[in-house]
Amino acid sequence: MTDSRPIGVFDSGVGGLTVLREIIRRSPGESTIYLGDNARAPYGVRPDEEVLAFSTQSLDLLVERDVKAIVVACNTSTAVAIGALRRRYDLPILGVIRPGASAAALATRNRRVGVIATPATIRSHAYFGAIKDENPAVEVYEHATPTLVPLVEAGELTGASAEAAVAEALAPLFGERDAEGESIFPRPPGATIDTLLLGCTHYPLLRPIIAAVAGEHVAIVDSATATASALAELLSINGLEASPGGVGAPGASHLQLTTGDPGSFHTLAGRLFGAAFPDVERVELAVATR
Ligand code: DGL
Question: For position 141, which CATH number holds?
Fold first, then answer.
């Protein structure tokens, strides 16, 4: 069985393109429709009710476009809304948290994993729960790093000031004490994480700096790669691949939609992902009525 309908990929803005990029790399025969709710991004500093309402409106639009499965590429949206979204629609919905958590739980050797994400994702403890589900013996150190999304959106992916900002954001995970001298994480002396999970769409774009700050003994795991693998498996299990065995088929198409200004989306996406970024279309979201 094959199904040539597109996969819907949703994010609050451009960051989810890190997930889309991995999906296209992993499943080149699949068509996609990407929706970024740029008009209302960032989600990571919003209350849960707003994240849920905006995510629902966004997925309603993708479902109207007859997608065969949806990837909620936004960590914040997955953390807050995935359960409600799965109850609302009849098609397979994949979030980014379980695949990332599973990869991190398998990567750690000393059973100490750090997670960095937006304030809303950290507040939900969704990564904590998902990693514990994989291996209850893993100690999970969650840490909100709200300065990193604005850094990426400003296109600051390299250079001394980006390095300083990343080092400051990660210091509590690796340093013993915070700026006030308080110990951040209760842990035995000498214990440190050996795996750092990038729990936000934007962070893979800072991966080289994050890896340098974390040091060579820390494995960096990102949810984008793990989610693309999980999606390939989901399509195969459900008989939803566009071509038998998921091998590259000619004619895969990729449509980018934004609730914000297409020009700004295009400029930012081009800066982050390369000048050949395709055209972007503007859409309005209907207010969800149920
Ligand atoms: N997409 C969000 C996430 O992965 C980051 C940007 C935002 O806060 O909207 O959590």
Answer: 3.40.50.1860
